[in-house]
Design brief:
single chain, alpha/beta, 9 helices, about 220 residues
Length: about 220
């Protein structure tokens, strides 16, 4: 990863990384949307799954526990947070590969072998061009017919959800987060080449509504 590449740390500031898991659980109804996302992904023993923006590894650990024989890998640009993810996997005795990189590096980490890519609470933090680059790389990383599963802040449909989402915008920046609030993610998925793009669930939280998206890479 080039030394001049920058990323938004967990919770917006690197010194807050240590409370990331607690904050996400408290502020996003994590238990509900993570269960729904894993159910949507439906990991199976023959799957090769890449978690883009894996953070502290909570999701990849849950995926591996759901399907112990699946090949599961995590990708994240933050070296400090990857240490935490690796520690979780080691404590659980789980064989999970971790790679350092951005969403735009998903095609390197997945190398065209993944049949499922999953990502949570990543794209609202990234600039618009990085969102585009990330979805394009995820498309390349998937096998034909592969699935994309996303949980992130999406279209904020009500005045209350917009007001609650302001907390996230104050932390992660208005410019990067506003496209999500306006519902841009499905459009960007289609732009990258994905088909069957659908918002399957909307889960309100204390920081705005979190949408679960599904998309598929067309068969060759």
């Amino acid at each position: 990863m080039p030394a001049n590449d920058r990323f938004v740390p967990a919770l917006g500031r690197s010194e807050w990384t240590w409370i990331y898991d607690f904050a996400i659980a408290l502020l996003t109804r994590e238990g509900r949307w993570r269960r729904a996302l894993i159910d949507q992904c439906a990991p199976k023993s023959q799957d090769v799954i890449l978690d883009v923006g894996c953070g502290t590894g909570t999701l990849v650990v849950l995926l591996k526990r759901r399907a112990p024989h699946a090949r599961v890998a995590g990708l994240d640009p933050d070296p400090d947070i990857l240490v935490r993810a690796q520690r979780k996997a080691k404590i659980g005795g789980l064989d999970i590969a971790f790679h350092q990189g951005f969403a735009r590096d998903a095609d390197y980490a997945g190398a065209g072998h993944a049949n499922k890519i999953i990502s949570s609470l990543v794209f609202h933090q990234t600039p618009l061009e990085e969102k585009r680059a990330g979805f394009a790389a995820m498309y390349r990383a998937l096998r034909p017919g592969g699935e994309l599963h996303i949980a992130d802040y999406g279209l904020q449909r009500t005045a209350l959800m917009r007001r609650l989402f302001r907390r996230v915008q104050q932390l992660d920046g208005f410019e990067n987060t506003e496209p999500n609030a306006l519902g841009v993610l499905p459009e960007l998925m289609r732009e990258a080449g994905f088909a069957q793009v659908a918002e399957r669930k909307v889960i309100p939280s204390p920081t705005g509504s979190i949408s679960l998206y599904f998309a598929r890479k067309p068969d060759a």
